[in-house]
Amino acid sequence: MQNDDLIKRYYSQLLLDGMSVEKQKLLSKKSVTVIGCGGLGSPLATYLAGSGIGNIILIDHDVVELRNLHRQVFYCENDIGTNKVDVLAKYLKSLNSNISIQTNAKRSWDLVNKDLKSDLLIDCADNLRTSYSLNKVACEEKIGFLTASVAGNIGQISLFDNEKNHCCLECIFPKEGDMDGNDCADIGILGPSVALIASIQTSIAIDYLIGEKLHVNQIYRVDTKNFSIQKNKISPDSSCKIN
Ligand SMILES: [Zn+2]
Predict the structure, then answer these.
(1) Which residues are CB-neighbours of 239 under 8 A, at least 6 positions away?
(2) Burial of 194 by CB count in 10 Å (0-12 exposed, 13-18 middle, 19+ buried)?
(3) Ligand 1 center to 180 CA (angstroms)
(4) What residues have a C-beta under 5 A from ligand 1, the ion?
(5) Contact assessment for residue 168 and residue 139, using Cβ atoms and an 8 Å cutoff
(6) Residues 73, 163: contact at Cβ < 8 Å?
(7) What's the CA-to-centroid distance between 139 and ligand 1, angstroms?
């Protein structure tokens, strides 16, 4: 993209502190993998596409269901029965024709590392099994891992860069118990709550992709009812099984 076109398209984004034409070009060279295209993944992928991330890989085995629509508002009644990745990819391409979108309508744990690999693995899934398997892939491949979950009125977001010293999801939450427990939809969830968590997750992703380290090895706990955010540093655990 020529500089003039880039400035026209991303003008308001470029005005921000920390942004520049060079960083916008950097975003256009970045590739991210979004695992889960539901309440978190669909708004997140849309904002990433709008902001000019060069390549977005969408992974989700689900089709759109009626019970999704109260919170996954990027899907319409006409989409029921269609693969989420196909509906979302079509929308993202219409939003920003300068970026590339790839899709894979499978469960992430049925894929091999090379199918998932990118500059940042973004976990928008609704189950622990996926989060832990992606954490392992990110550690093995030494790539960034941004995970979020939301249940009821509480959301959690954490980012690991997997660069120098080991620090991962299992360092803070050792894998134990039922990996196939209730997902957020069974606990209860309001559409705006999940959108709030998705917005924070997307902002963290963009910061990371332009080289900002502010959020690395941090966990954010967001109360979407009382509107409070707690930020805590995550310390590596030398006994972590992934280490
Ligand atoms: Zn660990």
Answers:
(1) none
(2) buried
(3) 21
(4) 168, 170-171, 240, 242
(5) yes
(6) no
(7) 8
How much is the pTM?
0.95
Identify whether the C-beta of residue 156 lies closer than 8 Å to the C-beta of residue 231: no
Q: How far is the CA of 239 from the centre of ligand 1 (A)?
A: 8
In this predicted structure, what is the pLDDT of residue 187?
Answer: 74
| Residues 197-230 pLDDT 10s | 999 999 999 999 999 999 999 999 999 999 999 9
CB hemisphere CA count around 4 (13 angstroms): 0
What pLDDT, on a 0 to 100 scale, did the predictor assign at position 240? 95
What pairing do the DSSP bridges indicate for beta strands 144-151 and 154-160?
Answer: antiparallel
pLDDT digit string (tens) for 75-98?
999 999 999 999 999 999 999 999
| Domain at 30-185+193-214: CATH code | 3.40.50.720
Is residue 71 within 8 Å of residue 26, measured between CB atoms? no
